[in-house]
Write a sequence for this structure.
């Protein structure tokens, strides 16, 4: 019974680490895309007329 609990805890920890790494990578990617998009908007603001 105890061995089963330890295996379950190990799997849960591994899954949490995998999700954490995926979320960190996704966050960095989204942040970079937002910075690039903002830079493009700022560089082309002279071409906008109202």
């Amino acid at each position: 019974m105890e061995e089963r609990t330890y295996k379950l805890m190990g799997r849960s920890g591994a899954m949490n680490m995998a999700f954490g790494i995926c979320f960190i990578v996704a966050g960095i990617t989204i942040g970079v895309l937002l910075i690039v998009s903002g830079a493009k908007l700022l560089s082309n603001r002279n071409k906008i007329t109202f």
About this structure: The chain has a mean pLDDT of 92. Helices lie at 2-43.
